[in-house]
Amino acid sequence: MTMTLLERAFEELRIPYDGVIMDRFQKYMQGILTWNEKINLTAITEEEEFIKKHYMDSVACYGFPEIQKAERLIDVGTGGGFPGVPLAILFPQKQFVLMDSLKKRLNIIDDLTSDLGITNVTTLHGRAEDLGQSKEHREQYDICISRAVANLATLSEYCLPFVKPEGAFLAYKGVKAEEEVREGKKAIALLGGQISREESIPFSNYDMDHLIIVINKVQKTPAKYPRKAGTPSKEPLK
């Protein structure tokens, strides 16, 4: 019954799905909720709320042209695998790298995706400040996407270094993000980005209170960014 909510959401967004896709969504949720009893992956333990806050929220960007044309995506601060795993299920032809600083979370994502036959997800352990300076990951992704909790200037310093010029960074923020957007514009420009638009979560009947800020990467990020670990959160760019 609960998955009917997700099916309605897919239909509203015109997302194609079949029994295999629905089975993977169902079993991934069950896996996360089971593991959550041992390790903190989510504060949401009720299935309907899980579908709204993790699944519907994650796939809200499905139709964005940036997502549609991307081939390689990184999810920074993935936590329990959101939005990376739901998007990977829907886009099996795209490659997703899910990054987090807590290895235990990533081990669970590895186990669950392997069990479910989700073959286009790779996990990456480390801090964004370090990985964003590595040749292997710096400016190697078409899209960076993040639901991590940090102000927009800090989050942009974590995320924009991963994005290729002409790629994009999608940041999930609360509806009252106007001040963050206004205060973050200078920092975003310093990092080689430019705010393109703000998209509201497109589910009118479900009290979804997020915006997705779309930031285009218009030039290379200067070599000094991201700064050393801990600095972007303690001293956000202004």
Describe the structure.
- With 238 residues, the chain is of the alpha/beta class.
- It has one domain: Vaccinia Virus protein VP39 (Rossmann fold, 3-Layer(aba) Sandwich), CATH 3.40.50.
- It contains 10 helices and 7 strands.
- Helix 2 (19-35) runs antiparallel to helix 6 (103-115) and helix 8 packs parallel to helix 9 (178-190).
- The N and C termini lie far apart (48 Å).
List keywords for this structure.
globular, rRNA (guanine-N7-)-methyltransferase activity, Rossmann fold, 10 helices, 238 residues, 7 strands, 21% strand
Per the principal axes of the C-alpha atoms, what is the gross shape? Answer: globular
Nearest-integer average pLDDT: 93
> Into which percentage range does the β-strand content fall?
15-25%
In the CATH hierarchy, the third-tier topology is known as: Rossmann fold
Name given to the CATH homologous superfamily: Vaccinia Virus protein VP39
Largest sheet: 7 strands, mixed
What order do the helices and strands follow? HHHHEHEHEHEHEHEEH
